[in-house]
């Protein structure tokens, strides 16, 4: 009887939404309002802010992602039909990356409010959505950042790396490549090999599309014990380096979503990370139309950094800021090991 109940749980889920499940919670998806870091650590007292070497298994046909940190996945109580479907050949891929959330995670703040007031923790009926982003570097290690259109409801004029939601049936890599093309016009081609794995190309160069970081992103404006945060995303960040200089890469910006773009020099990012004073001008572009006609424009580094929203009502989104910081720290560690 138990197994039938479990299968029904999964069938109730809208398949257009991602289901994020963590270890010991594989029988039910994590809902918005519950902190992912709390779930994966399994012990609320620890209050950990990140996990290195976090394992994620993603099934692209189901849009389900299983998360595990520390111990092994435990599928002992999981319905056999579900397990068979989940692990079907070629549909599932394993990732190992760092999982982190904001030090001001609204979900965790909500839990603490409930605990302090001795009120029950209410989770919403909404599933956490899955999103992907691309840290795209040119051959000279400049990073592409785009500015979200000022008309957008969420994070208008925030600076981000290109990305968006995963569609049902897509692998994470296919999703991030599609979003990159839609938002910037940069085409990455793919080929499926006989064993089902995908190879990606740009300008005849084979690309490594490497996942390096995952962030629990929660947007919330007012939290009290009756109002848990309603929206939540798990954002998986990928990293790619092209073999062209950015001056040779033509951008065709998706004007409804993007109203500016810059390639940021690594020294500029380091400067910001080290919180050095002084400003810089960076040459970027703004779109003139949706056909790829652009105009060059000078942006100030202080427009891009620090966190959104800054004094210009711009700045980099917190998730993207933390992903960039982690990526650069990791690179420095690798260099110092040589
Ligand atoms: Zn959290």
UniProtKB/TrEMBL annotation:
<dbReference type="GO" id="GO:0046872">
    <property type="term" value="F:metal ion binding"/>
</dbReference>
<dbReference type="GO" id="GO:0019677">
    <property type="term" value="P:NAD+ catabolic process"/>
</dbReference>
<dbReference type="GO" id="GO:0005829">
    <property type="term" value="C:cytosol"/>
</dbReference>
<dbReference type="GO" id="GO:0005777">
    <property type="term" value="C:peroxisome"/>
</dbReference>
<dbReference type="InterPro" id="IPR015797">
    <property type="entry name" value="NUDIX_hydrolase-like_dom_sf"/>
</dbReference>
<dbReference type="InterPro" id="IPR020084">
    <property type="entry name" value="NUDIX_hydrolase_CS"/>
</dbReference>
<dbReference type="InterPro" id="IPR020476">
    <property type="entry name" value="Nudix_hydrolase"/>
</dbReference>
<keyword id="KW-0460">Magnesium</keyword>
<dbReference type="Pfam" id="PF00293">
    <property type="entry name" value="NUDIX"/>
</dbReference>
<keyword id="KW-0378">Hydrolase</keyword>
<dbReference type="GO" id="GO:0035529">
    <property type="term" value="F:NADH pyrophosphatase activity"/>
</dbReference>
<dbReference type="InterPro" id="IPR050241">
    <property type="entry name" value="NAD-cap_RNA_hydrolase_NudC"/>
</dbReference>
<dbReference type="GO" id="GO:0006742">
    <property type="term" value="P:NADP+ catabolic process"/>
</dbReference>
<comment type="similarity">
    <text>Belongs to the Nudix hydrolase family.</text>
</comment>
<dbReference type="InterPro" id="IPR000086">
    <property type="entry name" value="NUDIX_hydrolase_dom"/>
</dbReference>
<protein>
    <submittedName>
        <fullName>Nudix hydrolase family protein</fullName>
    </submittedName>
</protein>
<feature type="domain" description="Nudix hydrolase">
    <location>
        <begin position="127"/>
        <end position="286"/>
    </location>
</feature>
<keyword id="KW-0479">Metal-binding</keyword>
């Amino acid at each position: 009887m138990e197994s039938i109940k479990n299968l029904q749980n999964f069938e109730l889920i809208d398949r257009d939404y991602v289901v994020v499940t963590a270890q010991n919670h594989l029988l039910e998806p994590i809902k918005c309002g519950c902190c992912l870091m709390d779930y994966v650590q399994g012990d609320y007292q620890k209050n950990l802010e990140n996990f290195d070497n976090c394992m994620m298994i993603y099934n692209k046909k189901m849009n389900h992602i299983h998360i595990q940190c520390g111990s092994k996945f435990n599928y002992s109580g999981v319905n056999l039909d579900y397990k068979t479907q989940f692990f079907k050949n070629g549909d599932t891929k394993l990732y190992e990356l760092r999982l982190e959330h904001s030090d001001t995670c609204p979900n965790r703040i909500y839990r603490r409010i409930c605990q302090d007031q001795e009120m029950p923790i209410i989770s919403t009926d909404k599933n956490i959505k899955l999103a992907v982003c691309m840290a795209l570097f040119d051959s000279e290690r400049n990073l592409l950042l785009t500015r979200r259109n000022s008309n957008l409801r969420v994070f208008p004029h925030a600076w981000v790396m290109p990305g968006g939601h995963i569609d049902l049936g897509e692998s994470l890599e296919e999703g991030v490549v599609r979003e990159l093309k839609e938002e910037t016009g940069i085409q990455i081609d793919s080929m499926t090999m006989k064993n089902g794995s995908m190879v990606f190309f740009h300008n005849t160069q084979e690309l490594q599309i490497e996942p390096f970081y995952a962030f629990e992103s929660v947007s919330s404006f007012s939290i009290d014990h009756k109002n848990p945060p309603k929206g939540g995303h798990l954002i998986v960040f990928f990293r790619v380096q092209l073999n062209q200089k950015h001056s040779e890469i033509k951008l065709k910006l998706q004007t409804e979503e993007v109203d500016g773009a810059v390639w940021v020099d690594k020294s500029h990012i380091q400067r910001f990370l080290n919180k050095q004073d002084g400003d810089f001008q960076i040459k970027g572009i703004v779109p003139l139309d949706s056909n790829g006609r652009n105009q060059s424009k000078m942006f100030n580094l202080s427009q891009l950094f620090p966190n959104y929203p800054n004094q210009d009502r711009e700045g980099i989104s917190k998730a993207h800021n933390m992903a960039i910081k982690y990526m650069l720290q990791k690179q420095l560690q690798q260099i110092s090991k040589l």
